[in-house]
Amino acid sequence: MATYQLSLSDESKERLAKVLDYSRTLAHYGFIPFILYLGWKASPTKPSLFNLLSPFPSA
Amino acid sequence: MYSRMEYLHKCFNKSTGWNTDNIFDNILATSDALLDFQVPNGGRLEISSQATPYLASSVTLSNRLAVTGLLAYLYLSVPIKNAIGTKDILLQDAIAGFRIIRPNLLPESGSRSSKVSPKGSLMYGKMFFPGSALEAMFIRRISPNLQLLVKCINNAHIYKSGTMIVYLQENTPRFSREYIYSTNEALIGFRCLYNFGEQTGLPATPVIPKFDNSVVSVGAELWYAAQSMSPGLSTALRYSTRSTSTGKPLTMTLSCNPILGHISLTYNVKTSVSSTVCSKYDFNWFLYASNLSMGVELYNFSKKSPFFSSTQNRSLTSIHYDTLAPTADPEILAHSVTNNAQSFPTTNSTVALSESIFLRPGSSRISDINSQEVVNAFQNLVKESNFSSVLKASTSLNDRMVKILWVGRYKDFLVSTGVKLQFDSATAVPDVGRFGVSLAYGC
Questions:
Q1: What are the residue boundaries of the structural domains of chain B, listed by start?
Q2: I need a labelling partner for B272 at 20 to 30 A (CA). Which of A11, B4, B34, B157 fits?
Q3: Cβ contact (<8 Å) for B54 and A47?
Q4: Distance in angstroms (rounded) separating the CA atoms of residues B297 and B435
Q5: Which DSSP string do the residues of B188-238 spell out, in sequence order?
Q6: Contact criterion met (CB < 8 Å) for A36 and B59
Q7: Interface contact flag, A36 B73, Cβ < 8 Å
């Protein structure tokens, strides 16, 4: 019976680990900007970037 | 006291018709709120705002040992109209307290005013400083009774740089089921809860005389950690009912973990509109160890008008009682509105209603309707009353500790302060375990 095994070279493994590491960093720092983008897109008034970012109530 | 984001999450649950009391995780919610409440540690300031109806932001600064902060953003696909700021918020909505259980009630019949939008999604991100650790949450309502919930933490300083947990939750008036997977030790879990009791909210034959609106919920959870091959199991039973003569609700729970040999019994009763008492007894049959805990919650009535004075409609805003409450009788509400706040408006209408049950002869159906009115009147009074502050206290005999928490208002801020005292078992000298003040502003 044939067995299927995924064989990767050390170089490929290293590259894959690096890609995963980068994507994790991207998700980490990109998550909150993504939330801000969704909030901006959903709103019909399209508030300014300062209003979006500021957690303080605008006067 | 709930953080602003927790409050908005509850508003989202309400506006999408998601009953959290039906989830196994919340089966002990009342006793947890009265006994295991968190006392602030150090100084804390939270300021939050809603830039648009779809986006809320919050900043928190804490100074315990060092100054730390967090920045949180929340996106909702459905506009939150029932969220109100800390100036007008009801205290019973701002803190976790007694929960009136109505899991069987369908959202259509329960919510009298707000239109429920059964689909929607929520995204929430919180970044801590210093260290820039990220906490993220994503909720997707697939259908009115089915939702996907993903939570994750990404932090370079914890094991494997973080963890992720995925829940698939099915929540119907009769039962709820949850399938859970966590990347931490490849943990697989299953939770379920089943409700016995009337389906429609109409009065049924009471199990115990003088008590009505009874709901019995039975639930269990099963866990299996695939990496360490360790299982977990616990079961719980909740009995929730209301007195037909006074309308006061009470909840009893029995939870058991046969693997750890732990059994826990709680008895929670709302003794009046402004007070709740809770007791809990824990016993471990492997260790022959026991513990008795007691907790109390006392609300202080506001000197201002007892009912909403501004343009907001409270029936739209209450997150605890509105979705769960049966349709209110306008006459009862009108009667209670006319009463004076300072002389505890609730008693007159409740007593009048309870007297009418005994004085008015008639069929059992009429007495059923009357008892339902009494129950509704009490619930509405709890929902509509305006409180200025709340005092919570809990003690545990075996742990030798006392916790006191006060939540009130200062101008437009919600203030929370408390202390946790621990007594040394040998010398009985009290030691301050936690002490702090928390200020919150939201609009």
A1: 4-442
A2: B4
A3: no
A4: 19
A5: EEEEEEEEEE-SSSS----SSTTEEEEEEEEEEEEEEETTTTEEEEEEEEE
A6: no
A7: yes
Output the CA torsion sign for B264, B399, B33, B142: negative
Q: Per residue in A13-40, is it b (16+ CB within 10 Å) or e — as a string?
A: eeeeeeeeeeeeeeebeebbeebbebbb
Through-space distance between the first and last CA atoms of chain B, rounded to whole angstroms: 16
Q: How far is CA B89 from the centre of its chain?
A: 15
Interhelix angle for B330-338 vs B364-384, to 10°? 50
Q: Do A39 and B55 touch (CB under 8 A)?
A: yes
CB–CB of B211/B204 below 8 Å? no
Domain assignment of residue A34, given as a range:
14-53
Q: What is the pLDDT of residues B20-39, one digit of tens each?
A: 889 999 999 999 999 999 99
Residue holding tokens 């506006």?
Answer: B15
Would A31 be classed as within a structural domain? yes
* B116 contacts chain A (CB < 8 A): no
For domain B4-442, the CATH class is mainly beta
Q: Most distant CA pair in chain B: distance in Å?
A: 71
- Predicted local distance difference test score (pLDDT) of residue A2: 60
Write the CA distances from B324 to B29, B112, B185, B275, B329, integer angstroms. Answer: 15, 10, 37, 20, 15
Q: What is the ipTM of this complex?
A: 0.85
- CA distance, residue B415 to nearest chain A CA (Å): 18
The dihedral of CA B359, B363, B367, B373: what is its sign?
A: negative
Question: For chain A, what is the domain count?
Answer: 1
Handedness of CA B178, B179, B183, B188 (dihedral sign): positive
Chain A contact set for B122 (CB, 8 A): none
For residue B130, is the peptide bond before it cis, meaning its omega torsion is within 30 degrees of 0? Answer: yes
Of B149-163, B181-195, B342-356, the range with the highest mean pLDDT is: B181-195
Q: Are residues B298 and B278 in contact, defined by beta-carbon separation less than 8 angstroms?
A: no
Which residue shows structure tokens 């210093």? Answer: B130
pTM across the whole model: 0.82
Q: Is residue A8 part of a domain?
A: no
Within a domain: A24: yes
Query: Is residue B75 within 8 angstroms of chain A, CB to CB?
Result: yes
Contact B47 A35 (CB under 8 A): no
Residues from chain A that touch B127, judged by Cβ atoms under 8 A, are 32
